[in-house]
Write a structure and sequence with these properties.
It is built from 15 helices and nine strands. With about 375 residues, it is α/β, with parallel strands linked by helices. It starts with a helix and ends in a 9-residue tail after the last strand. The protein has an eight-stranded parallel beta barrel, surrounded by four helices. The chain has a single domain, classed as Aldolase class I (TIM Barrel), CATH 3.20.20. The structure holds iron/sulfur cluster (SF4). Iron/sulfur cluster binds near residues 86 and 198.
């Protein structure tokens, strides 16, 4: 039994109907509860909750401070390769996008590590396109070995792997794996992912089960907001999270909120989410789950990121480059998507401090503070 068997029993349309049928009284009931269930989460992401945003933000802030204190954890992505064997309709690394392709050598990885270390980071997120031949398990094992002397927390955002491959990477020192489902709409998933291994919906949606069985310390979930109805996708994602927490209870979890961004391959925003609605979604997750790490990238604007610091986000990237080798060699233009918040680490840390929060560069989950 995996999550695929679980969602096979769920209907996208019926779930959507039940979200859009939520009323003011359903929202008020959710807001009055100490702990929210999935029905409450549906109410909190529904249109009926939009007038309650201030109240949601107030509760979200309180709950976040209770569990995480006034701290914001900082991490940085390190792109090792933009090779990709998939076609995704929304991504600048897609196989059909004619850009120069690059995979970092050992020497280049070390150079990037040294540059990032000097910027003050202790938590690095390895990112690649999905290309098993150029960047497979052996490449990742080697990269983790090279990076381990520099960083105490290593996360991975690459193609979904098999359980034994995850086990090998965990043995090398891998701490966290992020895999985003993009959308849980199985039929339309195929339209957004017409070619390559990623077009296998089932293999992707079962990745977190393989990770749980491999014994990963932390795993991240999320949908690509904008591909399909963000409310329905978010309820599927919350259902997935709840299933995983109950099945693999030793693992920690995080949820991210990537919105579609302009990129070399164009994009296909179908269900736009406003800034207010994104705040609503973030607060809904916090009310649903007090323990959850909520993460935000530099895809978002500086002003949005500054405002969200106090409302529920606990982990945030800064000073990011989305092209391989972009820190040590910033001149090449091979980026996956345009970043919006281009402030450097010092500047962004100052913003966090000015809001009364402490920027943290180590991972408290690993007891390394
Ligand atoms: S989203 Fe990932 S898999 Fe799809 S084209 Fe971009 S890098 Fe490749």
């Amino acid at each position: 039994m995996t999550f695929y068997d679980h969602i096979a029993q769920l209907s996208w349309d019926e779930l959507g109907a039940s979200i859009y049928a939520k009323s003011k009284s359903d929202v008020e009931l959710a807001l009055s509860k100490e702990s929210c269930d999935l029905e409450d989460f549906k109410a909190l992401v529904s249109p009926a909750a939009e007038p309650y945003l201030e109240e949601m933000a107030r509760i979200s802030q309180l709950k976040t401070q209770k569990r995480f204190g006034k701290t914001i954890q900082l991490y940085i992505p390190m792109y090792l390769s933009n090779e990709c064997q998939n076609i995704c309709t929304y991504c600048g690394f897609s196989l059909d996008v004619k850009i120069p392709r690059k995979t970092l050598s050992d020497q280049e990885i070390v150079k990037e590590a040294e540059t990032i270390k000097q910027m003050g980071y202790d938590h690095v997120l390895i990112v690649t396109g999905e290309a098993n031949k150029e960047v497979g398990t052996d490449y990742f094992k080697n990269a983790i070995r090279l990076l381990k002397p520099y960083f105490s927390h290593i996360s991975l955002e690459v193609q979904p792997l098999y359980r034994n491959e995850y086990q090998e990477l965990i043995q090398e020192g891998l701490n966290t794996v992020l895999v985003y489902q993009e959308t849980y709409h199985e039929k339309n998933y195929k339209l957004h992912h017409p070619k390559g291994k990623k077009s296998n919906f089932r293999f992707r949606v079962e990745t977190h089960d393989r990770l749980g069985k491999a014994g990963i310390h932390k795993m991240g979930l999320g949908v690509l907001i904008g591909l399909e109805d963000w409310r329905i996708d978010s309820v599927f994602n919350a259902t997935h999270l709840q299933y995983l927490e109950r099945t693999y209870w030793k693992t920690k979890y995080s949820v991210s909120f990537p919105r579609l961004r302009p990129c070399a391959g164009g994009n296909s925003v179908k269900s736009a989410i406003s800034d207010r609605q994104l705040v609503q979604l973030i607060c809904a997750y916090r009310l649903f789950n007090e323990e959850l790490e909520l993460s935000m990238s530099t895809r978002e604007s500086a002003s949005f990121r500054d405002n969200i610091i106090k409302l529920g986000i606990t982990s945030i990237s800064a000073d990011s480059k989305t092209d391989p080798g972009g820190y040590a060699n910033p001149k090449e233009n091979l980026e996956q998507f345009e970043i919006d918040d281009k402030r450097d680490t010092k500047e962004f840390s100052k913003v966090i401090e000015e809001q009364g929060y402490e920027p943290v560069f180590k991972d408290w989950d690993l007891g390394l503070q």
